[in-house]
Design goal:
Layout: H1 2-7, H2 10-37, E1 42-44, E2 51-55, H3 62-71, E3 77-78, E4 91-95, H4 101-130
Antiparallel strand pairs: 1-2, 2-4, 3-4
Length: 131
């Protein structure tokens, strides 16, 4: 059955259709990130894949952002957790394909709150340590 499916060209059509669908989802997601998080998250744009990396501003604790995001029902992964040594820059691994388009903007708004609260908390700690 699988050989017949491939021989009749169904597999190639399926791959083409999925590339178009995933490309459109990635483009929509990237534009929404630019709009909602442009000053807090810079995407490392990719032509393929189901995840993208979003770079946080230097000095932001990506693991703290993940914890704050989880409290807001947003699942992201800390880029630093994928490194054995020192991570060169803080970032988040974001799943692109598992989110319905209607849920993207609300999720990004909650992620923005998580990033802002993390930065605010870090600022309070620095202030309290210097006082």
């Amino acid at each position: 059955a699988m050989a017949e499916f491939i021989a009749e060209g169904h597999f190639v059509r399926h791959i083409r259709r999925m590339r178009q669908l995933y490309g459109a989802r990635r483009a929509y997601f990237a534009e929404a990130v630019r709009r909602e998080l442009g000053d807090w998250l810079q995407l490392n744009e990719a032509e393929a894949g189901m995840h993208v990396v979003g770079w946080l501003p230097d000095g932001v604790d990506d693991r703290a952002v993940v914890a704050a995001a989880q409290q807001r029902q947003v699942t992201v992964k800390a880029l630093s957790s994928h490194y054995l040594g020192q991570c060169p820059r803080p970032g988040l691994v974001l799943g692109v394909m598992g989110v319905a388009e209607t849920a993207v903007v609300p999720a990004l708004a909650r992620l923005r709150q998580a990033i802002e609260s993390t930065i605010c908390e870090a600022g309070k700690q620095v202030y309290n340590e210097t006082v």
